[in-house]
Design goal:
This protein is α/β, with parallel strands linked by helices. It contains ten helices and nine strands. It has two domains: about 40 residues, no CATH class; about 220 residues, 2-enoyl-CoA Hydratase, Chain A, domain 1, CATH 3.90.226.10.
């Protein structure tokens, strides 16, 4: 009887009372270790409220946060060969691509949209680190080039949100060829006299840093973002010296002239709007009209009898 009471019944009870809970209900802050409710972080543009740590932001969420009324037109990207080298390491490259597309809902690492920012037409490209580390392959390169060409045709600024671990090794030399291709597309936008603004997010490294991520007219970085070509650990092992505190972080790079400004995510949208208007020589947006309350109805006092 004890065995039934002490073992069987509690197991049945725990099984019946088990409740399903989402896996991402809580987020652990990488800086402080504090557990934060996911909905609070999501509503705060994926910034931890207590520590101001900037979490990674997906491409769709990023586009929603930039465009007016969270609406935009998605720019079509030319299709490319899915697995041109038939690459295989521990797994087939085709299987890795399939998993990444299922996980993110994206065709590849870069999504491009066109819309308005504070009433000014712009084209925006966003690199999503969740798609194979934001690696630059043929499809991602085509997306960046398509975004730049669209900005040239429509005569608008192009804003690029960079987040990448570098070139995609599964595509070999075809991946590395995206560095000069995107550079030529940036020059096309420059020849057209339109602004190119780069927002460097955490992390931006490798071949992306060696190409379009460092060719902007203005470079903005989010707080605490890792920005560089090779990682700090590789550099330390190569030069056999201890690197300065905060080396390759956005604040360090701003102080040493590699980045123009470090902007909190909450201030990013108005900052980009102001820069686009200045560089496009457009007048400032008119202030939004404030709806005044209807005048109060005051009844006249009754005449004395």
């Amino acid at each position: 009887m004890n065995w039934i009471s002490n073992v069987v019944r509690p197991k049945i009870r725990s099984f019946l009372n088990r409740r399903e809970s989402p896996e991402n209900l809580w987020i652990k802050c990488p800086e402080t270790g504090q557990l934060v409710f996911f909905k609070d972080v999501e509503s705060n543009h994926f910034v931890i409220p207590s520590s101001n740590y900037h979490m990674r932001m997906g491409a769709t969420a990023r586009l929603k946060s930039i465009f007016d009324d969270s609406t935009w037109e998605e720019i079509a990207v030319p299709s490319v060969a899915a697995d041109p080298l038939k690459f295989r390491d521990e797994r087939r490259y085709a299987d890795r691509l399939k998993d990444a597309r299922t996980k993110t809902g994206m065709a590849d690492a870069v999504k491009v949209g066109a819309g308005t920012l504070d009433g000014l037409p712009v084209v925006v490209g966003v690199q999503d680190f969740d798609f194979m580390g934001g690696s630059l392959g043929m499809a991602a390169g085509e997306a960046v080039v398509a975004g730049l060409e669209t900005a040239v045709k429509r005569g608008t600024p192009f804003i690029m949100f960079a987040a990448s671990g570098g070139a995609r090794m599964q595509e070999g030399i075809l991946s590395l060829m995206q560095l000069p291709r995107t550079t030529v597309a940036v020059e096309m936008l420059r020849d057209a006299g339109k602004p190119y603004i780069v927002v460097l997010t955490n992390p931006t490294t490798g071949g992306v840093t060696a190409s379009y991520a460092m060719l902007g007219d203005v470079h903005i970085a989010e707080p605490g973002a890792l920005i560089g070509f090779a990682g700090p650990r590789v550099i330390e092992q190569t030069i056999r010296e201890k690197l300065p505190e905060g080396f390759q972080k956005s604040e360090y790079l701003r102080d040493h002239g590699m980045v123009d400004m470090v902007v909190h995510r909450h201030e990013l949208r108005p900052t980009l709007a102001s820069l686009c208007r200045i560089l496009m020589r457009q007048p400032s947006a008119p202030p939004h009209a404030i709806a005044l309350p209807p005048p109060a109805v005051v009844e006249a006092p009754a005449a004395p009898a």
